[in-house]
Amino acid sequence: MKYKLPDKVTEVMDKIRNEGYEIYAVGGCVRNMILKIKTKDWDFTTNATPLQIVKIFPNSFYDNKFGTVGIPIKEKVKGKDQTAVFEITTFRSESGYSDNRHPDNIKWGNRLEEDLKRRDFTINAIAFDGKNLIDPYKGQIDLANKLIKAVGDPNERFKEDALRMMRAVRIASQLNFLIDEKTYKAISINSILLQKVSGERIRDELVKILSANYPADGIRMLKNFSILSIILPELEKCFGIEQKSPKRHHKYDVGTHLLLSLEKCPCANPIVRFATLLHDVGKAVTYKKTAEGVITFYNHEIFSASIVKNIANRLRFAKHDRDKLLCLVRYHQFTVNENQTDSALRRFIKNVGPENLQDILSLRTGDRLGGGARESSWRLELYKKRLIEVQKQPFRVQDLKVSGHDVMEIYGIGPGPYVGSVLNMLFSDVIEGKLKNVHKMLIQRIKDLKKESKSLWPKSPELH
Ligand code: ATP
Ligand code: MG
């Protein structure tokens, strides 16, 4: 099989080769090339030192102790400008991982074989020089068999860097691969070592699992490999919390319901998916069973939100993502009832924020389907329509599509209480549905009001 690299990649590799160095594409991009999946960010390995690379590419940046040089590459994707990053790392051979996450000392290697040996999985340890694949660990066979297998002894490799266990699950859920038997047995034995890995690194892999095509399979794998109990103990606790009781519609225990909700969530955004996965975590701490055997979880959404806040802080989610997670979880229990007033709906929109409305409805769809209910109901559909309708109405006088300036201009008056009273009249008419919040119509109404007011208050001192 002949593989062809994109022109930009060949250009960069040729430039380095012309200076007399070795250069290979390696890792995810080669994996993708063999699987015919498109790659955005390319990784390379070379015998040139970072400073020698920087000399060849003056616009590159090198500021990291791992010796990686980044070259920003501008490209057009579907007509839009995008910047991809090509990362070039000098051959490395690492030794000593006393903290299970950072090599004690990184040694520059001078042989490709050494560099491939320290890579995590056989399918990630294939190099490509533009013509030939260098594949000492038979990664191509594992790619064909859809298998993730550690390079070397999996036990040692996971002891060196515990994050590799999550990377195995992440790549398996992205590619729909299985994990080789020896490798997964080693994961089950070593999962406890993930306790020492930083929140940021765990978050990055978790977000990739949540973004994959089958995120719930990834979370299931984490559970089966005893990783979930280390990274998300709050979720692990939910498995086995029963919900089935008289007067309750629930079929599944809380943990199973949460996994199924994630599986059915129709939104691709990993934050919305994470909120869907965690929305009921507070049930583990609010569980109560009455004398009649009825199970309740009063105020569980408030407890869920507080637990999710701890999780988001521990995993160092950015503030913006954390706020969205909290908001979706806190308000997921919203009531859908045809007798609710418009103001109740408006209060809900104000709490959730108009930008999160679609996402909280996606969470609700996951929640319903993951609880064995139908995707929607006439009540929910009516509610969605009303949410759209009430948003068309202004919430405050300031949201009217005209301002005090329009009133002053039409009436030919200066600022004063009369301006406010005209605006209030318009606002009431809009709220009551007598008038639409459309600039042209409001202007006409102000003109009509002026005519009416002239006949009503011909001697008004403010009016001409
Ligand atoms: P993608 O970029 O598609 O998310 P990837 O496999 O390229 O997947 P990166 O994090 O970009 O993942 O890493 C690039 C390569 O570096 C990997 O393919 C692997 O060879 C190596 N690598 C990354 N992290 C580790 C690790 N923790 N231990 C050993 N090798 C690693
Ligand atoms: Mg990569």
Automatic annotation (TrEMBL):
Residues 176-237 form the tRNA nucleotidyltransferase/poly(A) polymerase RNA and SrmB- binding domain. Residues 396-444 form the CCA-adding enzyme C-terminal domain. GO terms for biological process: tRNA processing. GO terms for molecular function: metal ion binding; nucleotide binding; nucleotidyltransferase activity; tRNA binding. Belongs to the tRNA nucleotidyltransferase/poly(A) polymerase family. Residues 271-337 form the HD domain. Residues 23-148 form the Poly A polymerase head domain. InterPro entries: Bact_CCA-adding_enz_type3_sf, CCA-adding_enz_C, HD_domain, NT_sf, PolA_pol_head_dom, PolyA_RNA-bd. This is HD domain-containing protein. PANTHER family: CCA TRNA NUCLEOTIDYLTRANSFERASE 1, MITOCHONDRIAL. Keywords: Magnesium, Metal-binding, Nucleotide-binding, Nucleotidyltransferase, RNA-binding, Transferase, tRNA processing.
